[in-house]
Amino acid sequence: MQSHELDYEIVGDDMQMVLVELDPGETVIAEAGAMNYLEDGITFEARMGDGSVANEGLMGKLLSVGKRALTGESLFMTHFTHQGAGKKHVAFAAPYPGKIIPVDLPSVGGELICQKDAFLCAAMGTQVSIAFQKKLGVGFFGGEGFILQKLRGDGLAFIHAGGTIIKRELGPGESLRIDTGCVAAFDSSVDYSIERAGNLKSMFFGGEGLFLATLTGPGTVWVQSLPFSRMADRIIAHAPSQGGSAKGEGSILGGIGRMLDGN
User: Fold this and answer.
1) Which residue in 16, 106, 199, 230 has the fewest CB atoms around it within 10 Å?
2) pTM for this structure?
């Protein structure tokens, strides 16, 4: 199915939104709960599956939502369709601080592999499925486990990643070693493997984790500076405990600060 053609604008800095412009009859699909606002004339409906395959039947839809369940995403996707006249807009918001990345799928060979919670929205006709990591090392130590998201199509897709995003173009045989949690996305021509982070002393005391991801070109790689899991760990580490105390960096000064705040 040929994807619908979308025009868009990304607004904001750390908490971004993408404003998608729809012509009459055009549809954009999105993760459940991603919509921020929509204009008159645009209707939305929660459906099983991404709608990329016409007449796929009940079993096909169940298989599709079963794959989505493995990534921890909602079983349903929301389809937004412009059924009025003129051009109308629907906005989708990033779920946490970071950047929204527009990807023209034909420019990356029609297929993109990304972390399992990265997908935000895409043109109707885009297939949203999963990619199993075939290498055991990648599955056990790759940060995202065996399962990643796979986006396939010939239109625009929008993904979200945390912090600052760096896009790297790797030549044939060129490699990039990355913290396993900082791999946001890469195209299907990139080889993804896992290696030890130096010797045993470096692995246990270097603070960089036990393993690094090695991505080898040719292809395109997107690297994120702040994975959501890392941000969540920091928040949990500095959150007050049930007894009302908090632990973390600068505990003495932190305690004085909480007293001044009335906590």
Assistant:
1) 199
2) 0.78
